[in-house]
Amino acid sequence: MKDIFEKLHERMGPLGMHADDAHGYYTFPKLEGPIGPKMNFRGKERLNWSLNNYLGLANHPEVMKADAEAAQKFGMAYPMGARMMSGNSDYHEQLEKELAAFVGKPESILLNFGYQGVLSAIDALVDRHDVIVYDAESHACIIDGVRLHMGKRFVYAHNNIESLEQQLKRAQKLVEQTGGGILVITEGVFGMSGSQGKLAEIASLKSKYNFRLFVDDAHGFGTMGKTGAGTAEEQNCTEGVDIYFSTFAKSMAGIGAFIASEPHVIKFLRYNLRSQIYAKALPMPLVIGSLKRLELIRTRPELKERLWTIVHALQNGLREAGFNIGITTTPVTPVLLNGTIPEATHLTHDLRENYNIFCSIVVYPVVPKGVIMLRLIPTAVHSLEDVEYTINAFKSIKSKLDSGEYRQEKLAAFN
Ligand SMILES: Cc1ncc(COP(=O)(O)O)c(C=O)c1O
């Protein structure tokens, strides 16, 4: 017999296996000081491209004031208990109404966390007779929700409508026998590549197949569409999205999330969403702070315009400098380079220590072997000087990478 703790040493997992070398520098870094494009990392100011603070709301003065006043008035505990039992309030309901109206749906339900909410919603919506058809590059919260499903699940190749149709045909055959239905799940904006889910094309398949469409629009809410209402607005297919989800963790720069849909779907979720029924309600400062953030998203279009000015400058500048930024059509900006994992480590260390640029780095298995992806998240509070400085720094590190300089260096000292 084995002590289950024993095996934890041997099986740290795909991320944990690098923990000893990476902890505190590449993983679990501490970014200090006010949230923004310039933050301190290991005692030195760095230009920061790694936060999803798209609209710069994280420490917008009006947001900070609303958060602080709500905390002063209500504390962090109120309301106590789950919404269903003792934790409901007018503010929670008002936020639900305003979110629904903003994304063009009749009703919405608040979730304490996006990850748990998506997982739990998938679990609630389908039973063993139903079939889930989902995009292969879906976020972990979708994958983990699908894992809970007792019935069949069919995955389609990322953003590939032909593959989706094949899976829909299989699903249709199956549900004809089981008497169930089909739920298609995808994302509005894929957070790694920055490509958009083909929501309009998927929704148009409803003329051929009978299914409901669930969209996780974590990166699209606030950044995409004419009013910032998200990727369905951008693609003019709000009606075709049956269940619209977004988190407050990105454009809203807060904590929490919501699902918007038809009244009977929301009513069903209120009474069946285990992540909410068995969890304490969102505390008041997060709810009142979210009302303020939503008000700013609605009433200050200049925030989104400013974001897109920075996005265009960064993406055009990188393309003109010869960088491969993939197929992004959203603010998410991947820079794809070729190199090994040790080269990626040296390059990132050089970028952080000698160019004072902090951005996320993604390597195999998230991207194919031999690819190094630097992921930049432009925001409304970056400047055009930040963009210019970064493109020049990237030119410099790319020429070092191409000339093999990162191959020769010794592993950087982490502490
Ligand atoms: C696509 C996507 N879905 C869901 C989530 C989870 O949201 P939360 O941070 O609110 O749990 C994230 C990350 O925040 C995300 O990127």
**What is the assigned CATH homologous superfamily of the largest domain?**
Type I PLP-dependent aspartate aminotransferase-like (Major domain)
Q: Per CATH, what is the topology of the largest domain? A: Aspartate Aminotransferase, domain 2
Shape: globular
CATH class of the largest domain: Alpha Beta
* Ligand set: pyridoxal-5'-phosphate
Strand order of the largest sheet: 4-10-9-8-7-5-6
Strand runs, count: 14
CATH architect. name of the largest domain = 3-Layer(aba) Sandwich
The total domain count is 2
Oligomer: single chain
Number of helices: 17
The largest β sheet comes out as: 7 strands, mixed
Taking pLDDT < 50 over at least 5 consecutive residues as the criterion, the unreliable ranges are: 409-415
Summarize the structure.
The chain is an alpha/beta fold and 415 residues long. Helices cover 42% and strands 15% of the residues.
